[in-house]
Amino acid sequence: MKILHIEAGRFLYGGAQQVSWLIHGLAAKGVQNVLVCPEDGAIQHAVAEGTRVHAIPMKGDLDVGLVLRLLSIIRAEAPDLIHIHSRRGADIFGGIAARMAGVPCVLSRRVDNVEPRWWAPLKYRLYDRVIVISEAIGRVLVECGVDARSITAVRSAVDSDSYNLPIERSWFQEEFSLPSDEMTFGIVAQLIPRKGHRYLLEVLPELLVAYPNLHVLIFGQGPLESELTQAVQQPDFDGRVQMVGFRNDLRRVMPNLYAVIHPAEKEGLGVALLQASACAVPVVAARAGGIPEIVRHDENGLTFDVGDVGTLKQHLAHLLSDRGLRDRLGVEGRRLATSAFSIDAMVEGNLAVYKSRLEV
């Protein structure tokens, strides 16, 4: 079996990281892989040995010339199937090129954005199958008019081994200027409105008074950075809420967190939550999008309705008051990360979709 992968992401995180793991897993099962990526795409240096790479100009949604560049590669490589992994023009132009070449094509969809009902059925007819990373994303597509029979859910994976790192309390407390008796929550998300930072900030003042050893670290970058930075400097937060920006060492940081909080209003899946579980750290999250598929209430975390700040505060207080609950949720999270959300499970899920199409 020969699969041609199209990935337009330039940085090796999120979807591109999933594609790298997929290619490694497929290669281990004897699948031949070809990768098409941007000229400056970091993924080209992270794929399995033996993967043929075509690094080409990929300029986004208006890059009509991408159709011809892809068509030339498809005809030269003659793959059995094409797997498109990203948007930014790769989805539409890749689908058109696959149709022109007469090669079966599947698309991965990682976001839960609503698409116009007049447009979605036309667009998704380009693909023989649509692989969504959560059942919730699949439901969004069906509501947009996409045929449910073409949709298969294959959840994203977490490299649980790489997140199985020891707790380094002294380093963690020194790195973030925390006291020795701290219990620290983290929120790991883009600084954008739909991630729901405001809900956490709303409940924190009371909790900070009730739990003097509570601290909060806000990880991430985005357009809300200035607004959130100004907000956490208010006296209500007692200097115990820090904006810490983007970190490339989250694997080292996460095991030291007391819990990860994710009050998002919309979420396709939430890979950072899988990472937290892999670190045996419980998650408190809103039941938005695909989150309930990876955060199971009273198993590896606690969940609440979107915007329900009363229940969010109750859950956080419960965790802070009950170390045994915190530890139990963490242990179960680690078990789930190494089984249901493993890289092997993700690879097998994608491979099953390929086989189902090629055996038609």
Automatic annotation (TrEMBL):
<protein>
    <submittedName>
        <fullName>Glycosyltransferase family 1 protein</fullName>
    </submittedName>
</protein>
<dbReference type="InterPro" id="IPR001296">
    <property type="entry name" value="Glyco_trans_1"/>
</dbReference>
<dbReference type="InterPro" id="IPR028098">
    <property type="entry name" value="Glyco_trans_4-like_N"/>
</dbReference>
<feature type="domain" description="Glycosyltransferase subfamily 4-like N-terminal">
    <location>
        <begin position="15"/>
        <end position="161"/>
    </location>
</feature>
<dbReference type="Pfam" id="PF13439">
    <property type="entry name" value="Glyco_transf_4"/>
</dbReference>
<feature type="domain" description="Glycosyl transferase family 1">
    <location>
        <begin position="175"/>
        <end position="334"/>
    </location>
</feature>
<dbReference type="Pfam" id="PF00534">
    <property type="entry name" value="Glycos_transf_1"/>
</dbReference>
<dbReference type="InterPro" id="IPR050194">
    <property type="entry name" value="Glycosyltransferase_grp1"/>
</dbReference>
